[in-house]
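Appendix C: a fully annotated inverse folding record. The material below is reproduced so that readers can follow the format used throughout the book. The structure is listed first as tokens, followed by the designed sequence.
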């Protein structure tokens, strides 16, 4: 776990990045403009930008036209900000090296300070030295053969070079798929393809994978039967294909019928559509996906669809990002001089784009996170979320939630809704298996939870999910442990409970992870120096929360001037709050369950605790805010999920939940939804409904994309992902800034 990320709360900064931008330079602007966005001031005059794309010839459809659309959409948005006027001076490279050379020379002769475009590495290799020799910035949005930015210090690239993306893709897919023997096929006449193959070969050898053969072809070939026949005679586990679009489609089409795993680094929706069913299951390494919730990406996709009536291609997205990066450099340089723009580009660091936070390395190569995708049902999906095949049968999962009693309203119903929505989605994605629920009511009591677990264990279920209460989990889990049944709690958060046994896992962030980070972030921002604490001495979670709050406040130099307790079920907190009123405090930290939290917040403000005293309530949710009304305004929560987060699939989850249940999901629904997806992934990876196999697969969960963020387990089965600080504002939980 990255401690710095925990402390600074990555999600909060992602929200901030959308409105103010992130960079080492103060003037860096956000990726996607809105009504309040301001770009750095540019010059008033028109700034001519050379644009070299393939408008005719074989490269026009797969590369040139998407690039042109991406550039034009970005130019319109940037100019709409009113702080500059970028104009394009276009030149068609005619899908040839000679055309690219002539196009670049033409633009250099016209005195443009910068040129963008160039898809093909062969063309770049021959044409960009002209710009370099003339001191003109040459910024390719697509080409990716290794090392081409070393042509000179005026050359930059947006696409991830193959020596970055291919080793990463090999490592991820080899670890997941376990291939041991592979074959390679590539276009020996194309610079990109040769470079891609070379990097694949090195990465495979480094991973201990045997390369059975390397087959080659030439640009323009259409029949690959001889090469593929030779490959299949060696019975490889996978075939790696390095080629440009036309040849790539043909190889995929002809190889797809052979039933072998295809790995095609630059595969896009264009080739998948052309190859049809032959592309199903093929794996791609990429720098962008339409599935990403990186700030601004979904907005870009919507605008692209509206303007052009089609889905954006990676080359459009990379070109769109390229012009924003260039415009930002021009603005920071405060000059249309090529050398000044070059220097500003070279300083680009963590600039927010739809590709992710973007930087250049010292050679002008792009640095951001690569992505592995897999073709499923004719579409590219995230590789990690395309579950391996399960067993061909129903898999029963026990569910223990409070359907009656005091915990049903604040916790149980949300948990049940989250589980059910996830189950429906998972079963829709599986062709040969389905998850079924056997649900038991914990009745909001320890005895009820123990009885529920015993019933489920007696039925031989391999896994049980649920458990809102830490106290109930603590007493009920040993029953499951004795029978070697997995227990996966979606909510409980008292510190240390996963140490009860190796079949116990939790999706909620434990108090000893969540609270120290929250205290550090809020104390640094708000500067409170004296605090009082009030907690439920009758509840395991609340006492654990209190202990972690106390330790964290002391660590941060906050004086604790008073501590009050209450019991579960209490409704009158006047005496405790009156005692607290007498103290000179900056903050009151409340540790309790839902009903008591609401009462304390409401009564605390009613008896006159002023707004200058910050109410800090680690597990505060929208339900308590709604019930406490104005008294909750300004209260601060430490939590693991927010409806505003751009974590993988989160906005789709929120939308689907609202459509199904007619309400906005809360954190308990989200954690339960994530829990079942994590469990289903473990079952799929285990290839078994055996509890021990599921336990082992869960324990190996690492950076699994969920609505909570990239999710991992620590060695004790505790959840690891980034916590969030939120504040109640205008009756809603919003990002704490």
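Designed amino acids, in order:
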């Amino acid at each position: 776990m990255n401690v710095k990320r925990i402390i600074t709360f990555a999600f909060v900064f992602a929200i901030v990045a959308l409105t103010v931008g992130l960079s080492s330079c103060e003037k860096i602007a956000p990726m996607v403009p809105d009504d309040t966005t301001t770009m750095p001031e540019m010059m008033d005059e028109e700034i001519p930008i050379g644009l070299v794309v393939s408008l005719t010839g074989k490269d026009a459809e797969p590369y040139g036209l998407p690039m042109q659309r991406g550039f034009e959409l970005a130019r319109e948005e940037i100019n709409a900000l009113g702080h500059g006027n970028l104009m394009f001076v276009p030149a068609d490279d005619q899908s040839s090296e000679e055309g690219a050379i002539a196009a670049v020379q033409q633009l250099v002769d016209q005195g443009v300070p910068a040129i963008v475009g160039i898809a093909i590495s062969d063309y770049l290799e021959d044409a960009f030295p002209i710009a370099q020799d003339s001191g003109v910035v040459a910024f390719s949005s697509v080409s990716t053969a290794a090392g081409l930015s070393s042509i000179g210090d005026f050359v930059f690239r947006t696409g991830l070079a193959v020596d970055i993306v291919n080793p990463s893709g090999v490592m991820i897919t080899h670890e997941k798929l376990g291939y041991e023997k592979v074959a390679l096929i590539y276009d020996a006449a194309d610079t990109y393809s040769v470079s891609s193959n070379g990097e694949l070969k090195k990465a495979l050898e480094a991973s201990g994978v045997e390369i059975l053969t390397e087959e080659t072809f030439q640009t323009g070939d259409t029949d690959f039967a001889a090469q593929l026949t030779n490959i299949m005679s060696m019975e490889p586990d996978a075939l790696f294909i390095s080629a440009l679009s036309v040849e790539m489609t043909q190889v995929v089409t002809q190889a797809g019928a052979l039933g072998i795993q295809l790995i095609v680094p630059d595969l896009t929706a264009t080739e998948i559509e052309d190859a049809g069913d032959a592309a199903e299951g093929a794996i791609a390494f990429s720098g962008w996906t339409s599935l990403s919730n990186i700030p601004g990406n979904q907005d870009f996709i919507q605008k692209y669809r509206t303007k052009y009536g089609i889905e954006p291609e990676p080359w459009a997205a990379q070109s769109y990002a390229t012009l924003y990066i260039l415009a930002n450099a021009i603005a920071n340089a405060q000059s249309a001089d090529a050398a000044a723009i070059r220097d500003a580009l070279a300083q680009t660091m963590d600039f927010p784009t739809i590709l992710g936070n973007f930087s250049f390395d010292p050679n002008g190569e792009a640095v951001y996170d690569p992505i592995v995708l897999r073709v499923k049902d004719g579409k590219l999906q995230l590789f990690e979320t395309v579950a391996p095949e399960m067993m061909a049968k129903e898999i029963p999962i026990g569910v223990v939630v409070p359907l009656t009693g005091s915990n049903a309203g604040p916790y149980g119903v949300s948990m049940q809704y989250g589980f059910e929505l996830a189950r429906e989605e998972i079963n829709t994605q599986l062709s040969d298996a389905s998850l079924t629920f056997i649900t038991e009511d914990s009745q909001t009591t320890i005895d009820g939870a123990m009885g529920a677990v015993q019933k489920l264990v007696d039925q031989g279920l391999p896994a049980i999910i649920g458990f809102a209460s830490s106290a109930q989990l603590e007493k009920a889990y040993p029953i499951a442990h004795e029978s070697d049944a997995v227990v996966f709690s979606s909510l409980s958060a008292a510190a240390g409970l996963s140490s009860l046994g190796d079949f116990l896992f939790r999706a909620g962030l434990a108090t000893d992870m969540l609270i120290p980070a929250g205290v550090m972030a809020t104390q640094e921002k708000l500067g409170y120096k004296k605090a009082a604490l009030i907690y439920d001495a009758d509840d395991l979670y609340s006492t654990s929360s209190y202990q972690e709050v106390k330790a964290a406040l002391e660590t941060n130099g906050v004086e604790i001037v008073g501590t009050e307790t209450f019991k579960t079920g209490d409704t009158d907190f006047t005496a405790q709050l009156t005692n607290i009123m007498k103290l000179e405090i900056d903050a009151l930290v409340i540790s309790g369950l839902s009903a008591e939290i609401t009462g304390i917040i409401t009564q605390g403000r009613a008896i006159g605790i002023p707004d200058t005293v910050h109410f800090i309530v680690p597990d505060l949710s929208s339900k308590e805010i709604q019930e406490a009304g104005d008294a909750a305004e300004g209260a601060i929560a430490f939590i693991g999920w927010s409806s505003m987060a751009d974590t993988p699939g989160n906005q789709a989850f929120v939308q689907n939940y609202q459509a199904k249940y007619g309400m906005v999901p809360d954190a308990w629904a989200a954690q339960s939804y994530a829990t079942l997806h994590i469990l289903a992934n473990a079952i799929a990876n285990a290839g078994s409904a055996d509890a021990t196999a599921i336990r082992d697969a869960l324990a190996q969960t690492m950076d699994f994309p969920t609505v909570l963020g990239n999710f991992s387990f620590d060695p004790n089965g505790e959840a690891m992902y980034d916590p969030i600080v939120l504040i109640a504002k205008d009756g809603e939980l919003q990002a704490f800034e």
